[in-house]
Specification:
heterodimer; A: 241 residues; alpha/beta; Rossmann fold; 2 domains; four-stranded antiparallel sheet; 26% strand; globular; B: 305 residues; mainly alpha; two-stranded antiparallel sheet
Chain lengths: 241, 305
Amino acid sequence: MSLLTLSNVTKRFGGLTAVNDLSFTLTAGETVGLLGPNGSGKTTALNMISGYLPVTSGTIALDGTTISTLGPERITHRGVARTFQLVRALPSLTVGENVLAALAFRKDPLWGKDAEARIETLLANVGLPGRQHEEASNLTYIDLKRMELARALATEPKLLLLDEWLAGLNPTELRAGIDLITRLRQSGITILLVEHVMDAVRALCTRCIVMNTGSRLADGPTADVLADKAVIRAYLGDDNA
Amino acid sequence: MKFLASLLALAALAAVPFFVGAYPLGLGIGILGYATLATAWALFSGPTRYISLATVAFFGIGAYTVAVLADLMPYPLVLLCAALIGLVVALLVGLATLRLAGIYFVIFTFGLAELVRQLVTYYEVNVTRTLGRYVFLPLGPEHIYWQLLGLLAVTLALAFWISRAKIGLALRVIGDDPVVAAHLGVRITRTKLALFSLSAMVMTLAGAIQAPRWTYIEPSIVFNPTVSFLTVIMALLGGPNRLFGPLLGAFPLFLLFEWLSANFPNHYSIILGLLFIAIVFLLPNGVLAAWDKLMARFKRKEARA
């Protein structure tokens, strides 16, 4: 059953077409990689799905209902959560309050004792057990990413959008990060993953969609897509194809 | 325990008019008035960091409501009308402006205060053909003092409740990062509008309660932009994100401004400007936060020693 459907979605910024007539569907439970060179429109596509940017034309539907006319808070309430390419912590809040903010304003809100218990579980699940009282501004880069993931998961999403969540991690952290997303995948959540780390894409994604200059270049099983000549040309240039 | 201490402090402050003369009571009224304005300002502007310069617009609307309605209905009803008018204006202004952010919001709120002043002046000059109005109400300074004390206590109680409630967390999240707030499901416009309106209602009441004190009011008195600037500087000095921060800023600064305006009437504005700059540079989060930071440093030093 398809969870997310993009139909002929286009985004223009003045004369620049960042996403051009993009269509694809995600089936519930899938982990799909959204790949492409820098500037190919991946993050713009993610921003439109999460409601951060309005579409210029086309429609985005979640569970068969159009969401591309809604703002990000309503889309969150329908079951879409995301992390950001550059981590966006809430710096004046503690780690626990960062997660509480997601619990308190989701569709089925949690507050007080129930929320505290849930915060503990969520933080433990992302590898930050017992860290709820720390200032978010004191966390290391990987821990900020973990916190941002816990915050996204706290909204209880059906669809999780990860924007280069594994970028900038050292090899040990990367291993831990891949394991964490693997566990999420096993829990049944649908994940759309914008990523440049190919080892992670191979390990995590059964299917990949490749974008180039705003359009869809390829869509299929990961191994096939990564061997596609057009994809290699888009990433590395003609000489390597 | 803290609640009991607060009640005792409130009772002690309420007894002040029985023991002091007219001048100290006048100072007390001034301090309470500004402490209320600064606390109300910080309700919205503290967590969201939206610097509003519209304080005097609401303050003046309150004073004018009393001047216009005092002869037409009982005093408590006049106050109720003032609060409602403040609320309606805040809702209209809020709907139009709360999508603005940063410097645009600051400029808009400053422009709004001037617009309200000009509109009232235009109406008074061209329609009623009198620039000023008289407010004759059988209220002594002690009555004004008690009303302001009551309003301040209610505002502090509201601020305390908000800081622990979901709406308080929503405001802090919006202040930190509105994009994240929206992606966590926070209804940003609704939350900001609610707090902006609540804060404006308190400001309107503060103006309404103080109107009888002046006896004669005109736009240049009750819509004086200095009121907005003083409110901001007091809240910033004490710390807009602490419950008692704005109150702590209002107390010394009001006394200082009184002294400056009495002794240096020609240089008052220059000194005010310099002080404003100094506070923003030296104490960006207020005295209370600076004090905590200092204490933390001492503790670290002790721990190392």
